[in-house]
C-alpha cells in the first residue's frame, strides 16, 4: 500500500515539482487547492481536494491517513493575500486530530533572525521586511506556530529558487552560510524534501544534526532548515550553488519569502 503525502500550497512550482517526484516514486499524493489557486492543472499525479482553510472537513479529507504533511503556503506578490499563519494553525489542528505527526514546512531564507546570513543577505532581508511587513509577520507567526505545535516538524528555509535541472543532493547544516547569490533548484529542493519526509534525518531530536550533515549528504551549497529543538530558530542551512555576479541585478526577493 502506497504511503500518502498531503501537500498544502500545491499551485506553486515547488509544490508541483514535489508532487511529480512523489507520484513517480509511488507515493499517494493528496493536494489541497483553494478555489482561487491556479497551476495545479500541470500535475498528473495525485488527488485534488478543493476548499478553503475555514472548511475543516476539506482539510481533514486532505490530511486523513497521511504519513506526512508538506506545507508551503505563503504570501505572493503583491503580498496582499496574507493567510499563511492562520492556515497553518488549521493544518496543525487537523494533524493532531487525525494522528499525523510529521510536518515539513517551507518558509524562506529571509524569514526571522538568521546569524548564518551574509551581510548583503541580511541587508536584503531587512529591506524586504520594511517593504512588506505584513507578509514577514505572517511568515514569522507561521514558523512560531509550527515550532510550538508539538509535532515532529522541520522548517525548510531555501534561498532563491530556480528552475534549473537537478544537480544532486544539497548539503543541510545549521552553520552553512547563506549569501545574496545563493540558490537551489526546485527539483533539488523537492527531492531533498521527499527524502527528508521518508527518512527523517532532521527529526526534532537533536540540534538539527549540525556537524553530522556532511557525512550524510555530499557538500554542496544552498538552502535553510530547522527543527523542533533548535530554539531560537536560527536555521539549518542548505545551499546548492552560487551564481554569476550578473545575477545580482536579477535577484528577486519574492523567491526567498
List the helices and strands and how they pair.
Blueprint (H helix, E strand, L loop, with lengths): L3 E5 L4 H12 L3 E6 L13 E4 L5 H8 L4 E4 L12 H15 L3 E5 L12 H13 L1 H15 L4 E5 L3 E3 L8 E3 L8 E4 H14 L13 H4 L5 E6 L8 E4 L1 E2 L15
Parallel strand pairs: 1-2, 1-4, 2-3, 4-5, 5-6, 7-9
Antiparallel strand pairs: 6-10, 8-11, 9-12, 10-11
| Discrete helix count | 7
Cα shape: globular
The mean pLDDT is 76
What share of the residues does DSSP label as strand, in percent? 15-25%
Order of secondary-structure elements: EHEEHEHEHHEEEEHHEEE
Spatial order of the strands forming the largest sheet: 3-2-1-4-5-6-10-11-8
Rg calculated over all Cα atoms:
17 Å
Total strand segments:
12
N-to-C span: 36 Å
Low-confidence segments, given as residue ranges, are 204-237, 240-256
Oligomerization state of this entry? single chain
Major beta sheet summary: 9 strands, mixed
Structural class: alpha/beta
Task: Give a description of the structure.
The strands form 2 sheets. The protein has a 9-stranded mixed sheet, with helices on both faces. Strands 7-9-12 form a 3-stranded mixed sheet. With 257 residues, the chain is an alpha/beta fold. Strand 4 (68-71), helix 3 (84-98) and strand 5 (102-106) form a beta-alpha-beta unit. The longest helix has 15 residues, at 84-98. The protein contains 7 helices and 12 strands.
Q: Keywords, please?
A:
257 residues, alpha/beta, nine-stranded mixed sheet, 12 strands
Give a short summary of the structure:
The protein has 257 residues and is of the alpha/beta class. The chain has helices at 13-24, 56-63, 84-98, 119-131, 133-147, 186-199, 213-216; strands at residues 4-8, 28-33, 47-50, 68-71, 102-106, 152-156, 160-162, 171-173, 182-185, 222-227, 236-239, 241-242. α2 packs across α3, α3 (84-98) packs parallel to α5 and α4 packs across α5 (133-147).
Amino acid at each position: 500500500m502506497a504511503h500518502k503525502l498531503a501537500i498544502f500550497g500545491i499551485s506553486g512550482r515547488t509544490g508541483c515539482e514535489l508532487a511529480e517526484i512523489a507520484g513517480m516514486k509511488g507515493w499517494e499524493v493528496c493536494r489541497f487547492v483553494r478555489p482561487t489557486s491556479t497551476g495545479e492543472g500541470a500535475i498528473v499525479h495525485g488527488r485534488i481536494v478543493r476548499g478553503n482553510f475555514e472548511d475543516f472537513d476539506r482539510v481533514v479529507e486532505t490530511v486523513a491517513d497521511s504519513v506526512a504533511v508538506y506545507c508551503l503556503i505563503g504570501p505572493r506578490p503583491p503580498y496582499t493575500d496574507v493567510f499563511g499563519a492562520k492556515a497553518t494553525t488549521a493544518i496543525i489542528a487537523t494533524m493532531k486530530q487525525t494522528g499525523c505527526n510529521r510536518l515539513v514546512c517551507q518558509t524562506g531564507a529571509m524569514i526571522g533572525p538568521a546569524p548564518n546570513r551574509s551581510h548583503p543577505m541580511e541587508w536584503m532581508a531587512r529591506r524586504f521586511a520594511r517593504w512588506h511587513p505584513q507578509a514577514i509577520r505572517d511568515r514569522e507567526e507561521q514558523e512560531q506556530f509550527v515550532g510550538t505545535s508539538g509535532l515532529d516538524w522541520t522548517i525548510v528555509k531555501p534561498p532563491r529558487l530556480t528552475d534549473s535541472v537537478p544537480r544532486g543532493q544539497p548539503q543541510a547544516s545549521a552553520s552553512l552560510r547563506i549569501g545574496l547569490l545563493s540558490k537551489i533548484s526546485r527539483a533539488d529542493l523537492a527531492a531533498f524534501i521527499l527524502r527528508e519526509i521518508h527518512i527523517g534525518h532532521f527529526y526534532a531530536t537533536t540540534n538539527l544534526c549540525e556537524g553530522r550533515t556532511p557525512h550524510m549528504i555530499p557538500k554542496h551549497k544552498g538552502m535553510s532548515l530547522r527543527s523542533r529543538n533548535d530554539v531560537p530558530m536560527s536555521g539549518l542551512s542548505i545551499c546548492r550553488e552560487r551564481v554569476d555576479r550578473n545575477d545580482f541585478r536579477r535577484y528577486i526577493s519574492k523567491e526567498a519569502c
